[in-house]
Amino acid sequence: MDNRNCKRYRDEINKMELTLPAISVNEGMARAAVAAFCAQLSPSPTDLADIKCAVSEAVTNCIVHAYKHKKGNFYITVNLYSDKTVRIEVLDKGCGIADVRRAREPLFTTDAAGERSGMGFTVMENFMDRLTVSSREGKGTLVVLTKRLGRKTAEEE
Asked: Would residue 4 show up in a list of annotated catalytic residues for this protein?
């Protein structure tokens, strides 16, 4: 999905692409790499923590659900914009999600063992300004996280 031609994305100032195997030890690496890259926009500690948490959830979904015990990679693209907007894409080429709308419902999980809470998309949505999820069964899933840095929360106003 390429949005560089959209008017609001023309002011890109930097971009990072990262590919890692979908194994649990790489969740922390992805989270740290995205946070370090975003640091050049001088985010508040709260903004940085929000980004790290959302990326962690998106990557964990890839690691746990995308490949169903097969090997695969996840791909992260981070775009930084002059208006202090961060756009993060987390892509896998795994099994896909049969029903994205249902998967985004709080507490929904396909984990029969009950080890997963079903709150991953809810957490991402609450920490970012915008979350989009597109998926095709057998082809993979793309999660796009967008956040404008420096916005005040209701508690801060």
From this structure: no
What would the pLDDT profile of 69-113 be if each residue is shown by its tens digit?
A: 789 999 999 999 999 999 999 999 999 988 778 776 765 566 555
Position 131 in a domain: yes
Q: Which of 3, 73, 104, 116 is catalytic?
A: 116
Q: Check if 31 is active-site.
A: no
pLDDT of residue 114: 54
Catalytic pick from 26, 27, 31, 61? 61
Domain tally for the chain? 1
Residue range of the domain that includes 144 = 15-148
Q: What is the value of pTM for the model shown?
A: 0.82
**How many other C-beta atoms lie within 10 A of the C-beta of residue 90?**
26
Residue 103: CATH number of its domain: 3.30.565.10
Alpha-carbon span 56 to 64, nearest angstrom: 12
